[in-house]
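We store sequence with structure; for instance:
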Amino acid sequence: MQLMPDSPLRQAALEVESHVGSQGWDQPPRLFALVPTADLIAAEPGLADQLSDDPDSITPIEQELPEGRELEDLLTEIEWPDAVTGCAAVIERIMLPPEAEESLPDDPDAIVEAAINHPDRREVRLVAAVMRDGRSHSAVRAKDPADAELLEGPDLVPGLIEHLRSTLT
């Protein structure tokens, strides 16, 4: 088994996944600004005892999102200030095996209904984190079984990664 190389970005993505995961399933999308911890401590010295003392670490800061909108639509309107060196998002989705695509209807609303009712569906939590320099890390966890392994890599959720990258340019 190949171990994933560790990095401050990977640690930030895993922290986001753990934080959201600790609050259970059936959550709305979540969005986080990623800032260098050293910069955050310099701006807010009172936070120093709550944050990592690793000078290269990255701290995720959760953002409030308006309800009732798809995350992908919201991301088209977001531009981060220069102090934000990256961002991360968490969404829950239903995934179907590739062979299920052939039997899906053409109507978008009917596709959603068919996916929800498909016997082979898997509910998953997707985490994507990106940096301005192009680096990314992602993670996927299935809802069932309850102890499902966390899958991770630089580009497991390419669509979400691209949406996030567009907010950093």
Observations:
- Residues 35 and 85 are 5 Å apart (CA to CA).
- The two ends are 36 Å apart (CA to CA).
